[in-house]
Predict the structure.
Amino acid sequence: MRIAILGAMREEITPFLKKFPNYTQEEVGGNTFYKIAYREHELVLAYSKIGKVHSALSASSMILKFGCEKLIFSGVAGGLNPKLKVGDLIIASKLCQYDVDITAFGHPLGFIPESSVYIYPDSQLNAIAQEVAQQKGIALMEGVIASGDSFVASSEKKKWLIKNFQADAVEMEGASVANVCHLLKVPFCILRSISDSADGEADVSFDEFLEHAAQTSADFVEAMLEKLLPQFT
Ligand code: ADE
């Protein structure tokens, strides 16, 4: 089984490279892909750079060029649901692109013709994430993740995202990766650790907690791999 592990920022992938230091690397489309033998399986790791376009390209490369059969996204997000505190984890129950707007033509916010507002992750991967959470004794929220090409740092925008998309967390890549995986029929899971509350202090919180939150997410993904991969040997 060949599994893609994708992050957006270097800091989101560094914890994996520390865990698995024996890799070969290949450049495609401005990204470095790290190939790691993991038991009888293969991991392909990359960070895409920030945003929906970069992450869509990286996810596509992982699937079409490197032949990845499942994809796990690991990274950080801004918390919108007040239950989510810095360091908490969330997996997406569904994802939307909150910055898609063709309402001028009578479509709902976030809707693209011949697509849908929400894209759904793989239920088996999400179930494995919940098993890992149970094993580790941590709460894992399953909620709506809204993605767009802005860093959200205001209470007004938070309210807007909750009102229009019932979003629990916000980030800048999940929905584009979800779209690519959905269209290419590759099961995926989007996991995020909360680095900030997407409010007026979000920038400071993000800088302070990015590394720790990225490590939390990476540790969780490693535990998921330990549960998932024996099923395919
Ligand atoms: N990723 C982490 N925090 C974020 C925020 N507040 N807005 C967008 N993406 C994020």
About this structure: The chain has six helices and ten strands.
